[in-house]
């Protein structure tokens, strides 16, 4: 903290998060509350995010646990202390003044502290001014609250009631001998003992029983149950409310790859009458089946929770980004961050696509929102790489390696109205505004995807002629692309001329 303050690199509010936090929360409500509070009172220097679990929760054990004294009317933390543990006190000494200066106080020893704090630069200044501060809770938080009369700084709380946030240390997690790596776990899931999950997306209300080994990329949809001692195969997809039991192991070739002849669709946990419906309760053991556009659309439309007309409406082209809801923005931020992480690590295009589709289906995101997330991630990756490498080769290499991913987010190549292609280019145009070499990035991406037959001439020209692409900053960033557009227009005119000439010759 003192080093950050001395370097003067933090100029706005920032998050301090323990490296071992496991959580499924959305921080935006807490951030909004913090910002509003700051606007009203500049002395509110920190918001501590806490999780409500109940005083008899097993999380406590024999170790010490935190006690927060809170003024609920102002969400202000008045006192912090740690009690319990071996030989520790179980009493909290409170300043009697709390009872006279605050209409209401709560002594909360039913809260888990995951060490998620929203801080202002004033927090760094407090650390620098007091060299007694060594830890974030026992010294800093306790000291700031104790010295309120001296410095006037206040700390506030944001208490989660329906989200999970814990530290993953051995004292925080029951000893179930589980490992979870590179995975997303939804709300209200139940995971048994000796379960190993790697590279999987498990949706809300899923049940994973004891002694299950899930090796991804794998999607377990909402309400599905995986029975004990099941070994899941890479590329599997378990649909809504399915029950999976006793999946046979697939033979592998000498190279270690699955034998293509052994790929099949499994319908576990269904009776013989129900098994005739090939799109309900299925597990796709074939990697290609689980990542194709057709399999995803069939899978989604088969479930009763999805309304086909509503899906069609939400997936239609939306030209006005101002219509995005808070949920849309959450999807774009989280999805683009996941895609960017995959691009940075060099993950395969199929792997990134599988994870993206899993998340898209879990929140019912539209294709426009998917394209927005993909474009944002690619533009950020290009901007980073172009700081040390030439822009043209960077874009060519990136879109060559991930051509199949881009193909899958542009779906209407066979139609006359290239709405998805127009939408994609509009989003590229939007996200390069204000970036270094933004006009060059737009030109190189447009030309590269055209050369790779991802974008068609009609789609590029429809985008160029759309009034929205030429207004304001959108129009300013496309100046360099004019030369490429001129080339396409001249080529189109020449082709039309040749066709007319051929028609005249045939008439003769």
UniProtKB/TrEMBL annotation:
<dbReference type="Pfam" id="PF02020">
    <property type="entry name" value="W2"/>
</dbReference>
<keyword id="KW-0648">Protein biosynthesis</keyword>
<feature type="region of interest" description="Disordered">
    <location>
        <begin position="311"/>
        <end position="331"/>
    </location>
</feature>
<dbReference type="InterPro" id="IPR003307">
    <property type="entry name" value="W2_domain"/>
</dbReference>
<dbReference type="InterPro" id="IPR016024">
    <property type="entry name" value="ARM-type_fold"/>
</dbReference>
<dbReference type="InterPro" id="IPR044123">
    <property type="entry name" value="W2_eIF2B_epsilon"/>
</dbReference>
<protein>
    <recommendedName>
        <fullName>Translation initiation factor eIF2B subunit epsilon</fullName>
    </recommendedName>
</protein>
<dbReference type="GO" id="GO:0005851">
    <property type="term" value="C:eukaryotic translation initiation factor 2B complex"/>
</dbReference>
<dbReference type="GO" id="GO:0031369">
    <property type="term" value="F:translation initiation factor binding"/>
</dbReference>
<feature type="region of interest" description="Disordered">
    <location>
        <begin position="488"/>
        <end position="508"/>
    </location>
</feature>
<comment type="subunit">
    <text>Component of the translation initiation factor 2B (eIF2B) complex which is a heterodecamer of two sets of five different subunits: alpha, beta, gamma, delta and epsilon. Subunits alpha, beta and delta comprise a regulatory subcomplex and subunits epsilon and gamma comprise a catalytic subcomplex. Within the complex, the hexameric regulatory complex resides at the center, with the two heterodimeric catalytic subcomplexes bound on opposite sides.</text>
</comment>
<dbReference type="InterPro" id="IPR056764">
    <property type="entry name" value="LbH_EIF2B3/5"/>
</dbReference>
<feature type="domain" description="W2">
    <location>
        <begin position="325"/>
        <end position="498"/>
    </location>
</feature>
<keyword id="KW-0963">Cytoplasm</keyword>
<dbReference type="Pfam" id="PF25084">
    <property type="entry name" value="LbH_EIF2B"/>
</dbReference>
<dbReference type="InterPro" id="IPR051956">
    <property type="entry name" value="eIF2B_epsilon"/>
</dbReference>
<dbReference type="InterPro" id="IPR011004">
    <property type="entry name" value="Trimer_LpxA-like_sf"/>
</dbReference>
<comment type="similarity">
    <text>Belongs to the eIF-2B gamma/epsilon subunits family.</text>
</comment>
<feature type="compositionally biased region" description="Acidic residues">
    <location>
        <begin position="490"/>
        <end position="508"/>
    </location>
</feature>
<feature type="region of interest" description="Disordered">
    <location>
        <begin position="248"/>
        <end position="278"/>
    </location>
</feature>
<keyword id="KW-0396">Initiation factor</keyword>
<dbReference type="InterPro" id="IPR029044">
    <property type="entry name" value="Nucleotide-diphossugar_trans"/>
</dbReference>
<dbReference type="GO" id="GO:0003743">
    <property type="term" value="F:translation initiation factor activity"/>
</dbReference>
<dbReference type="GO" id="GO:0005085">
    <property type="term" value="F:guanyl-nucleotide exchange factor activity"/>
</dbReference>
């Amino acid at each position: 903290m003192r080093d950050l303050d001395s370097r003067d690199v933090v100029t706005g509010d920032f998050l301090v998060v323990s490296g071992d936090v496991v959580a499924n929360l959305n921080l935006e409500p807490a951030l909004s509350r913090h910002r509003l509070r700051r606007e009203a009172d500049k002395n509110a220097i920190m918001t501590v995010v806490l999780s409500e679990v109940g005083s008899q929760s097993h999380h406590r054990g024999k170790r010490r646990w935190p006690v927060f004294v809170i003024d609920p009317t102002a969400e202000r933390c008045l006192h912090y202390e740690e009690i319990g543990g071996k030989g520790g006190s179980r009493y909290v000494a409170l300043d009697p003044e709390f009872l006279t200066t605050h209409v209401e106080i709560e002594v909360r020893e039913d809260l888990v502290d995951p060490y998620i704090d929203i801080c202002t630069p004033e927090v760094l200044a407090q650390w620098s001014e007091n060299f007694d501060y060594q830890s974030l809770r026992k010294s800093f938080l306790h000291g700031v609250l104790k010295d309120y009369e001296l410095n006037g700084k206040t700390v506030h709380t944001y208490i989660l009631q329906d989200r999970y946030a814990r530290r993953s240390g051995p004292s925080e997690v029951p000893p179930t001998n589980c490992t979870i790596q590179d995975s997303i776990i939804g709300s209200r899931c139940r995971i048994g003992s000796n379960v190993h999950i790697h590279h999987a997306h498990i949706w809300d209300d899923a049940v994973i029983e004891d002694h299950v080994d899930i090796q991804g990329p794998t999607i377990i949809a909402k309400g599905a149950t995986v029975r004990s001692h099941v070994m899941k195969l890479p590329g599997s997809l378990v649909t809504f409310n399915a029950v999976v039991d006793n999946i046979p192991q697939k033979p592998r070739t000498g190279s270690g790859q699955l034998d293509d002849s052994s790929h099949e669709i499994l319908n576990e946990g269904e009776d013989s009458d129900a098994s005739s419906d090939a799109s309900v309760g299925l597990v796709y053991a074939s990697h290609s089946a689980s990542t194709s556009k057709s399999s995803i659309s069939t899978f989604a439309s088969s479930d009763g929770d999805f309304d086909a007309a509503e899906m069609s409406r939400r997936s239609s082209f939306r030209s006005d980004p101002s219509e995005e809801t808070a949920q849309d923005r959450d999807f774009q931020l989280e999805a683009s961050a996941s895609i960017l992480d995959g691009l940075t690590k060099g993950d395969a295009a199929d792997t990134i696509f599988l994870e993206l589709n899993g998340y898209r289906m879990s929140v019912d995101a539209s294709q426009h929102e998917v394209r927005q997330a993909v474009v944002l991630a690619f533009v950020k990756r290009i901007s980073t790489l172009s700081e040390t490498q030439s822009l043209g080769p960077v874009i060519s290499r990136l879109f060559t390696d991930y051509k199949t991913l881009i193909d899958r987010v542009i779906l209407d190549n066979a139609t006359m109205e290239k709405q998805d292609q127009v939408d994609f280019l509009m989003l590229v145009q939007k996200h390069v505004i204000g970036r270094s070499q933004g006009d060059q990035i737009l030109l190189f991406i447009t030309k590269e995807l055209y050369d790779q037959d991802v974008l068609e001439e009609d789609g590029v020209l429809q985008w160029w002629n759309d009034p929205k692409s030429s207004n304001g900053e959108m129009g300013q960033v496309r100046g360099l692309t004019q030369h490429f557009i001129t080339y396409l227009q001249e080529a189109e005119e020449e082709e039309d001329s040749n066709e007319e000439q051929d028609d005249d010759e045939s008439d003769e």
